[in-house]
Amino acid sequence: MFICVFCASSQKIDRKYLDLARDVGTELARRGHALVSGGAIVSCMGEVARAVRDGGGHTVGVIPQVLVDIEIADTDSGELIVTGDMRERKGLMDARSDAFLVLPGGIGTLEELFEIWTSRVLGIHERPLVVLDPWGLYAPLRRLVDGMYEQGFTRPNVFDAISWTTTVEEAFDLLERPAAHLRPTAEEIGES
């Protein structure tokens, strides 16, 4: 499987997040999967990619030219695809991926999570989406979505479209399991 990992590029984060990213890359390679990433060598992105390669796995990095220009591209990537902009980058990452794993990250990671999650809820794709959150960074987000559901802004399948876990092993078990079939009706789409 080609597993897309969305994660932090910040270099100001606690070391535990970098260690988590390395553990994810190690497990990804151990299970025989390939990595699709944002193509940067910094922070968690770089840790995941290096760990995959250290384990003998294949990496595909997709990065916009503007980030290549500031010299953060993962030039050791098995495949490094340079795009014109961020939208093209996300589209190619999506197209190359069989499943999605979200690690703790900032607003860019959230934006990627929401796009994949929304398209999953709408039935545009049926690939697994898993959030690995050992320290509860996304707990406020989960409460927000619960509140949105209670207020009628989302439908019940918003919860069926995503899996949450706190361990690397469970995250990969969930990624390797077929995702639930979600096909909303026109009425359901109009409700949210």
What does this structure look like?
This protein has helices at residues 15-30, 43-54, 65-69, 86-95, 107-121, 139-150, 157-160, 168-176, 186-191, and strands at 2-6, 34-37, 59-64, 79-83, 99-102, 129-132, 163-165. The radius of gyration is 16 Å and the shape is globular. It is built from 9 helices and 7 strands, in the order βαβαβαβαβαβααβαα. Helix content is 46%, strand content 16%. The protein starts with a strand and ends with a helix. Helix 1 packs parallel to helix 2 (43-54). The chain is α/β, with parallel strands linked by helices and 192 residues long. Strands 4-3-2-1-5-6-7 form a 7-stranded parallel β-sheet, with helices on both faces.
Nutshell version of this structure?
This protein is α/β, with parallel strands linked by helices and 192 residues long.
Salient structural properties:
192 residues; alpha/beta; single chain; 9 helices; 16% strand
Write the layout of secondary structure elements.
Layout: E1 2-6, H1 15-30, E2 34-37, H2 43-54, E3 59-64, H3 65-69, E4 79-83, H4 86-95, E5 99-102, H5 107-121, E6 129-132, H6 139-150, H7 157-160, E7 163-165, H8 168-176, H9 186-191
Parallel strand pairs: 1-2, 1-5, 2-3, 3-4, 5-6, 6-7
Helix pairs in contact: 1-2
Enzyme class: hydrolase
GO molecular function: hydrolase activity, hydrolyzing N-glycosyl compounds
Keywords: Cytokinin biosynthesis, Hydrolase
